[in-house]
Design goal:
The protein is α+β, with helices and mostly antiparallel strands. It contains nine helices and eight strands. It folds into two domains: 4-150, Jelly Rolls (Sandwich); 152-224, Arc Repressor Mutant, subunit A. The chain has helices at 4-13, 22-31, 85-93, 114-121, 125-151, 154-166, 177-184, 188-200, 216-224, and strands spanning 33-37, 42-44, 52-66, 72-78, 100-113, 172-174, 204-207, 210-213. The protein is elongated, with a radius of gyration of 20 Å.
């Protein structure tokens, strides 16, 4: 059983819980438990059985696919006040988890057993509205990712990623070329080559695990070309 303070925090992050009948709330809070996971801890692996529905209290979950040759592609992220829709869908269909879920930063989750989530929440209209709204948001995010990979040049996607991380200002990003490749759905060698081109143009400076934007004006101009 979680503490009253934890329940207040969950109600704050997930207002939908306050719209559930009190008896059902007690069932959820009695069956669920809080876990705290360290940075980069794997929560779910591909083809693993979905036994719990995670509700994010703090930190983030990254949902990604892993190719046979080991390349990763981020689909979307789940932050505070959000839950894993893939886990819910797997529980409903009886399927195993089709992707990977990894925490980013120290992450606190409220883990609700799948069978409890199904038996208590499946017929609750407020919960269904919450799921549909969440599904739309994540579906839009996935569509944007697929659109970028399919239709946008990798060099432009890298430039836009750099601008987003630095908010169009001169700043330093702590990230490896491999991590950027994962975000963009490409190979590390491609990212290294493109960053090398930007370095030769005097737009960025490269260090070990760091990228410094030295000319954000020119970088933004490239994005607009």
């Amino acid at each position: 059983m979680i503490t009253p303070e934890q329940i207040r925090k969950l109600d704050e992050l997930f207002p939908v819980l306050k719209q559930i009948p009190e008896t059902d709330r007690q069932t959820i809070f009695s069956a669920g438990h809080i876990v705290v996971l360290p940075n980069e801890q794997m929560l779910m692996k591909q083809n693993q059985e979905c036994q719990f529905i995670p509700m994010v209290i703090s930190g983030k979950l990254r949902i990604f696919k892993l190719s046979p040759n080991g390349r990763e592609m981020t689909l979307y992220r789940i932050g505070p006040g959000e839950t894993c829709l893939i886990s819910i869908a797997c529980q409903i269909k009886g399927d195993d988890f089709p992707a990977m879920a990894q925490v980013e930063g120290k992450t606190q989750l409220f883990m609700v057993p799948s069978f409890v989530c199904h038996s208590v929440l499946v017929n609750n209209l407020a919960w269904k509205d919450f799921i549909i709204t969440s599904l739309y948001g994540h579906l839009t995010e996935v569509m944007e990712t697929l659109e970028a990979v399919a239709f946008d040049r990798t060099d432009r996607r890298l430039i836009l990623w750099l601008l987003e991380k630095t908010r169009d200002k001169a700043a330093t990003i702590s990230s490896t070329h491999e991590e950027i490749a994962v975000e963009l759905g490409t190979a590390r060698e491609v990212v290294s080559r493109l960053l090398g081109d930007l370095k030769n143009k005097g737009i960025v400076a490269l260090g070990r695990g760091k990228i410094t934007i030295t000319d954000p004006v020119q970088l933004k101009r490239l994005a607009e070309d």
